[in-house]
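Notes from hallway chat w/ T.B., transcribed later so I don't forget. T.B. wanted the structure written out for a chain they're using in a teaching module, and asked if we could keep both sequence and structure tokens in one place. Agreed to drop them here.
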Amino acid sequence: MHKTTLSILFLFLLNALRAQTTVNGSFVHGGITRTYSFYVPASYVPGEAVPLVIGLHGLSSSGSDFAQYRNFGPIADTANFIVAYPDGSLLFGVRYWNYGITGSSPDDVGFIEALIDTISAQYTINPNRVYSVGMSNGSFMSYYLACQSDRFAAVGGVTGSMSTSMYNSCVPAHPTPAIHVHGTEDPTNPYDGTASMTAIEDLVQFWVNQNNCNTTPQITSVPNTNTSDGATAEHYLYSGGTDGHTVEFFKVIGGEHTWPGCPMPGSSDVTCMDFDARVEIWRFFSPYERSGSSSLETHSKGDWLKMYPNPAQDILNLDAGERLINTVVIMDMKGRVVKKLRGQAIQQVDISTLKPGQYTAAMSGKDFHIVKKLTIL
């Protein structure tokens, strides 16, 4: 009886540990307390690297709203990836993303990169399979991440675009596959663009050119399975890009400022129900790894990078040999970023202000991203 009871208890604890998990957290970045949540599917196994999807909400919304109304959780459950829902910063009480807006100061690119490092310190993330998708203002931010960061394997946007200044100045670090979904009757971010917003067909062509895809797409009609929703859709596939990259575009004819497949309760805006944008976005993301990243070192490797002394006090020394460390992120055991340093060739980190305890240190360079345990005395 005693052995049977222990066995049942062990199985119960094992199942509990593998249950679906939603983690809420915060850390200070750029002098601002930033908040987020992320969802871990029950299929996650510690030590086995999984993809990470960043979901970015629209203007005046929040990460929790995105999680509720654009919920990627059911897809994460079956495909085994982690999905994060960060919150934008506040401006006059309204949450938004700073995609290079003139006069706006929050470092949202740095925040999202720090969030990736925070989650990677707690769970085993495949650094070559990190993706971003946003709606409206979050869509602008998703494309801005592809312009400003080298951390993303593919990006996507729904009902948003690129600002004209972003369009004119964006030079991605590597070809980045993109998927876009937009309604032709969107009153918020018009399909034909504005003086400050890139027209949608120009946006699509921008990413087609960045990925060196064929400029003539394969066009198919999305089956009109819901004839009462007021919208139909066409699918544009641009293939033949660098490393087999593609760009995809869902043109929602008659669609408004809405997310196909996920109508907002109480809204009268036209929402196409002929396809689920979440499903199509993950289908698009899933085969891609970060371009040119086949030589990237992962968390389970990197013994060549020396971090000493460990335990450490006041100063932490780093030796990457002939490689150059350009980013160091130190996190406490709750996943909060307590120290972040950027440079051309980092060899020392001042840790004198950090309290004694256990930490993780993530060191990144051109072709590596290494995470090590750190003890501070």
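Follow-up for T.B.: The helical segments are 2-17, 63-69, 73-79, 108-122, 137-148, 164-169, 200-210, 277-285. Might be a good example for the class.
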